[in-house]
Amino acid sequence: MKKIKSCILIFFLSLSLFAFEFQARVLPIYTYFFNGLCDVSVGSSLSFDFSLLKFRANDRLLISGQGTYLNMFENGINSEQYIDFNIATGYSMRLSDRLYLYPELIGGIWSINENKVNNLPGETGYFYGARLSTEILILPELSFSLFAGYKSLNTFRRPFAHTVQGGLSISYNFSKGLRYSSNVEISNEDLQPLFPVFYSHYIDNPFGTITLVNNEEAAITDVHVYFYTEQYMLVRTLVGSYEKIKQGQSVDVEITALLNENILTQLNDSITTGEIYVEYKLLNKNKEYSHTLSFTTLSRNSMTWEDDRQAATFVSPRDSCAQKFARQVKSIVKSSLRPDIPVNIQYAGALFCALKEYGINYVIDPTSAYSDNTGGLSIDFLQFPYQTLSYHGGDCDDLSIMNCSLLEAIGIKTAFITIPGHIYIAFDSGVSVNDAPSMIPGGRYIVDGDKVWIPYEITLCTDTFDLALKTGYSQWNKAGDNAALIPIEEAWTAFNAVSVPESDTSIMLPDRNKLVKSFKKLVY
Known about the structure:
By secondary structure, this protein is α+β, with helices and mostly antiparallel strands. The protein is 21% helix and 42% strand.
């Protein structure tokens, strides 16, 4: 039977803590009796308050069980003891983050014990009254208040006394103190797919936003929001700091991330989870909140053509395969250079010959074409330079990336040229603007600032170098204002070049003698 009673008691205590708010108040109290019943009356009240309903920001309707004990003193008479028990109902009204106004209506029974020493009879009866408290929160669960009240004491036959009372109180909210919970929340998640090749870009550029909502009972301060995904991050990234977020206010937080190179091992699209951590203070109390995010991480070959500069991230002079190919070609033809043609143009021609001997082909990919995706958010598949060399071919964007990487690997600056439905390249002639008319064959060049660029149609890889240069320049002129030149070096300031460990692969270079023979026959 005792076990059953204990279980019932534990059940109701748990219910009081978790089903609704439960707090206790201790009220040191001074009471004045208008009918002169005593000179001084001091004691205290104990109140157990239950909050069932909330209104507005944090207004609460409370029902309380209360008891009061007083010592009543009068000259020449030993003290008498007064006790009462009552039920109260009150409304805690929020005036500010820390200040509440709390009116109560009270009613119950009272009793004054018999004083045999002074031959004073005991009395008992009922009472009703009201109390008004001004409550100040120190912590979410701890508060102090000043209060004043009135009671009308009656016996069951007649009125007995009118009293006023006042004092201080301290209250502790067990539900808030023992049941830890955070009342901030994350809503309106708007996360874009994560592109592995842009992992360094996400340090300063967000890939999505979330909305942080403060549903706490007061403003929160010193708010710090962090993002972390264990798979691709070593440390949490601070994505938002706020000195204060008011109660009920929401803020939009942009999600950035300090990702590491492990993300470049992502070969297929997958769902990735991350965590949002929120640290803040509520009325001087430290609190935390975490929320799980799910988003798509694309394969490392994925990109969109929303911004053509993004393709520059695939252009890597550090691609080991491209480095070996370009530097060996440069070494082979170095002793066969002509004095009448700019060196950069000759090295570009040498790479053209080497790629033709190697067997590079222009292959249109109907499922991933620049012409179908340009200017849009559709996901395109772009090859790293080593992949195009390994596969012996690619479409226009793959060949542009590979050729720019080869040229950059031997110190020649490059650029993308975009015209409606097509992308190809240009390279720095190495000639000054003043010398260009006399030194560049056919006058096929573009002046941009202090550089003289040579347009180069890389898809004509099985034809002649001369035709590739003529076609590149012709397309530029024909496109007019619809043509754009994007220097790779400038694009890298927004989208850093990346390379992957797999780029250190072996390929069979063209025969040295055949390459030198083809190079010497080049027409510029």
